[in-house]
Design goal:
The chain is of the alpha/beta class. It is about 35% helix and about 20% strand. An eight-stranded parallel sheet has the order 1-8-7-6-5-4-3-2. α5 links the parallel β6 and β7. α2 runs parallel beside α3.
């Protein structure tokens, strides 16, 4: 991870899974070929919903010892959970630009804790606010729905944000999250996203492996095409 846009990576969002069987659902996703797991943490403040915190991550870690955990921290004051998430076994800590007064300090704390740093923006936030931080992080997350709820409709009008980032920061990992599935993957791939979060489209699929392979191939083809055009 954080190795630039050389690779397409598919990360199922387990929020859409059967949460009473969370560990086995995570294992099922990894066995079906997931490149990483996208774990949504919501605090009921930054977003209206409430999910789970570091104790759940700590329980999942021993069952998935080598899986990359990308924590999507939809929380107010993201600084306060950095150490506990690292101790629980998180690999990447992705916080929201809108949730902190001092993104630079938050990024520094994440790195000091030994995790990769991601920064995300909500649909109404302009992409240029990220410019001072892109070189400091491992990944940028563009939300294609309002964060806080699963199953929303994909916002295609977010694609220019991804294009802007890919054009100006060609090596950064760009993650897209919200309503992404086989019907919307081409738009994300053409815009330049390489880390694909998908919830219901994978979780609800009769063949998650096939669904993930299809999306990965679409992204890989777009990456190869853009490299040829450079």
């Amino acid at each position: 991870m954080g190795d630039g846009c050389g690779r397409a990576k598919i990360g199922p969002s387990i929020l859409n899974s059967d949460l009473s069987n969370l560990a086995s659902e995570c294992v099922r996703m990894v066995d079906s070929g997931a490149d990483y797991l996208h774990l949504d943490v919501m605090d009921g403040q930054f977003v209206p919903n409430l999910t789970f915190g570091h104790p759940v991550v700590k329980c999942l870690r021993p069952k998935l010892p080598n899986v990359f955990f990308d924590m999507h921290m939809m929380v107010a004051a993201p600084e306060q959970w950095i150490e506990s998430m690292q101790a629980a076994g998180a690999d990447q800590y992705t916080f929201h630009f809108e949730a902190t007064e001092d993104p630079k300090s938050c990024i520094r704390k994440i790195k000091e804790a030994g995790m990769k740093a991601g920064i995300g923006i909500k649909p109404n936030t302009p992409v240029n606010v990220l410019e001072p931080f892109v070189e400091l992080v491992d990944m940028v997350l563009i939300m294609t729905v309002e964060p806080g709820f699963g199953g929303q409709k994909f916002m295609g009008d977010m694609m220019p944000k991804i294009k802007f980032l890919r054009e100006h920061f060609s090596n950064i990992d760009i993650e897209v999250d919200g309503g992404v599935g086989p019907s919307t993957i081409q738009q994300c791939a053409d815009a330049g996203a390489n880390m694909i979060v998908s919830g219901s489209a994978i979780m609800g699929s009769d063949n998650p492996r096939e669904t993930m392979n299809y999306m990965r191939n679409v992204v890989e083809e777009a990456i190869q095409k853009s490299q040829l055009e450079r």
